[in-house]
Amino acid sequence: MTGILRMRGFSLGVVCVGALVVGCGGKSDASATATAGMESESGTTDGGSTSTGSTSNATSETTTNGGSMSATGTSSTTSAATTDDGTTGCSFLNCNDGGGGGSQCDPMVQDCPDGEKCTAVSPMVGEPWGINECVPVNGAGVVGDPCDIEGGKYTGLDDCALGYICLLTDDEGMGGTCVEFCDANMNCPNSGAMCVVYNDGSLPICLANCDPLLQDCAADQGCYPSGGDTFVCFKTSVDIGEGGVGDGCNYTNQCQPGLMCLSPDSVPDCLENGCCSPFCSVMEGNANCLDGQECVAYFEMGQAPPGYEDVGVCAIPM
Question: Which of 90, 99, 150, 183 is packed most tightly, with the most Cβ within 10 A?
Fold first, then answer.
């Protein structure tokens, strides 16, 4: 199981249904409400719900060599949602607080002493990233370079350069890729990717855009919804036989590529906090949907970014 990535407003490890917002999607005509997060390699994110048939808030880690990440999530109205811990979530665009409680530095500014860098770490053993700390700079890896993390995936002790973090590793922190932190202006000057913020603000990272209908990400990654009008590539956190159509999910990347985590009232016979449902082509209709679902446009009419007008998600119309 990969780590959990939570996005402000959405979470990579998207918890659909009233919890984390990253990964579920917006609600449109079909009104599939869901809050989702991504359970990939970072924490869960708080989430708001959009309105367009699905809630979009999934974060993907930056794709490296050969993988593309896309950022064109949903752009419907985002409203605050309640997370599992009872707090109110919001869109990452409005919730960039520079890090969670207990943070000692800002990864967007890199305000640590010489020889150290500000990165995301776990606030306590067994939890995903949630705070920012200064750690020694132990390497020179930049965007797309392979990397490893010493002592487990959430320690921050990686071999990436100042301004980068090692993500997309296995559970031991091995075999990852260096991903760029966003700068103070929410830009990604070294990768040209999109700035998305996860895990209580501790992970302001640069992820590449993708197309949810094409699923044009690297191997072992899916194209998931993120905040705003964005879809990004992130590592799936499912084992073989898990995360299929109708399976329960708490985070969007707990669904297999091509699926996203929706609230239970959007998926037939869903008895979990959320369930996985397919993306679909609005032009092609309901062929890939379950009985009782329709292919609902992901974006409200006239709000889809160029190239995403045909993106839909299978949901029970409301």
Answer: 99
Specify the number of domains making up the chain.
1
pLDDT tens-digit profile of 27-63? Answer: 333 222 232 334 433 333 332 222 333 333 333 333 3
**Using one digit for the tens of pLDDT, what is the confidence trace for 218-244?**
888 899 988 667 899 888 888 778 999
286 burial (CB, 10 Å; 0-12 / 13-18 / 19+) is middle
Asked whether residue 159 is domain-assigned, the answer is yes
Q: What are phi and psi of 192, to 5 degrees?
A: 70, 15
Q: How many CB atoms lie within 10 A of CB 239?
A: 8
Q: How far is CA 172 from CA 63, 143, 211, 264, in A?
A: 20, 21, 30, 33
Q: Structure pTM?
A: 0.68
Which residue range is the domain that position 125 belongs to? Answer: 116-206
Are 236 and 222 in contact by the 8 Å Cβ rule? The answer is: yes
Cβ distance 62 to 180 under 8 Å?
yes
Task: Give the number of other Cβ atoms within 10 Å of residue 29's Cβ.
Answer: 18
Structure token pair of residue 71: 């950022």
As a whole number of Å, the CA-based R_g of the chain is 17
Q: What is the SS3 assignment for 161?
A: coil
In a domain, 163, yes or no: yes
DSSP code, position 290:
P
Using the structure block, give the residue that is written with the tokens 């830009």.
187
